[in-house]
Amino acid sequence: MTKQKRIAALHDISGFGRCSLTVVLPIISATGIECSVVPTALLSTHTGGLEGFTYRDLTDDILPFADHWQSLGLGFDALYSGFLGSFKQVEIVSEFFDRFRTDDNLIMVDPVMADNEMLYKTFTPDFPGEMRKLCKKADLIVPNMTEAALLLDEPYKEGPYTEELITNTLKKLASLGSKLVVLTGVYFNENTIGAAAYDRETGQVDYAMSTKLPGFYPGTGDVFGSVLLAGLLNGKGLEKTTKIAVDFVAESIRRTHAARTDSRFGINFEAGLGDLAKSF
Ligand code: PXL
User: What's the maximum distance between 2 C-alpha atoms anywhere in the chain?
Assistant: First the structure.
């Protein structure tokens, strides 16, 4: 019998708007992996264009979760962090990683803080420096192009990009500390967009592209990251998994676009879960 894999996901719960744990949990479960959650904050909606959201910080609950889980002897095949609300929270998540890191588990940090050249509303300009420290502890980081610029303390560059620029960016990001980097929002022309994956040990760079559709949808990074991590834990390999994740996001955007849903409500990933489950 194969061992049941288990991920600990440290993200907020945004009650409405399809991002963070309302996306991570169903996707990871659909791929046959157990998903334990450490909610970092509780919001009524995400912060991307929906006004008047409530926000309850849950930082003080994180280490008590860790204490209890350690007392139960729990272990995780991967630790996956996303939206973190404050400097203190980043420090505590860093301690959580120290407590649950083993020789063979995978730590994935999605440095959620910005998109489209802008920091999300709840962050101050010094936050990227703190996130950079957390990235050092990761085996894999998954920034978008805006987050990459912030992590590298460089000005954001408009696309279309060249392969040379993307390869240099991947290498600089890997020098922050992680062995693997998957960069999203990569495009070489106006018709396609996707991700670039880099393995520092082999030096290999792989691209996965899909047709570009207009519009901006919150939560796509969380959908992408969840499929990516589930694929890696299911032994698909970095290149193939990046392609699966890019295609899954593209198909979800296509569905949402066709239905003309309010883009702030997130992407329709639900209709793709059945096929995703079968492909794993
Ligand atoms: O998907 C990223 C995300 C997660 N959590 C919250 C957010 C966002 C992006 O806007 O606001 C609360």
Answer: 52
Q: Contact 183/145 with Cβ under 8 angstroms?
A: yes
Length of the chain: 280
Per DSSP, the three-state class of 39 is strand
For the chain, residues with pLDDT lower than 50 are none
Radius of gyration of the chain (CA): 17
Q: Dig out the tokens for 278 from the structure.
A: 């079968």
Going from the Cα of 204 to the center of ligand 1, the distance in angstroms, rounded, reads 31
Is the distance from CB of 171 to CB of 181 less than 8 angstroms? no
Gap from CA of 257 to ligand 1 centroid (Å) = 20
Residue by residue, what is the 3-state secondary structure of 228-253? HHHHHHCCCCHHHHHHHHHHHHHHHH
For tokens 């350690």, the residue is: 70
Choose the residue to mutate in 14, 22, 58 for probing ligand 1, maximizing ligand atoms within 8 Å of C-beta. Answer: 14
- Across the chain, where does the E strand assignment appear? 6-16, 34-45, 55-57, 78-81, 106-109, 114-115, 118-119, 140-141, 180-186, 192-199, 205-211
Helix (H) or strand (E) holding 66: helix 59-71
Query: Per residue in 74-84, is it b (16+ CB within 10 Å) or e — as a string?
Result: eebbbbbbbbb
Predicted TM-score (pTM) of the model is 0.97
| Angle subtended at Cα 195 by Cα 29 and Cα 230, rounded to the nearest 5 degrees | 15
Q: E strand or H helix at 93, and its extent?
A: helix 87-100
Q: What is the pLDDT of residues 208-252, one digit of tens each?
A: 999 998 888 999 999 999 999 999 999 999 999 999 999 999 999
DSSP track, 116-127: TTEE-TT--TTH
Query: Cα(99) to centroid of ligand 1, in Å?
Result: 26
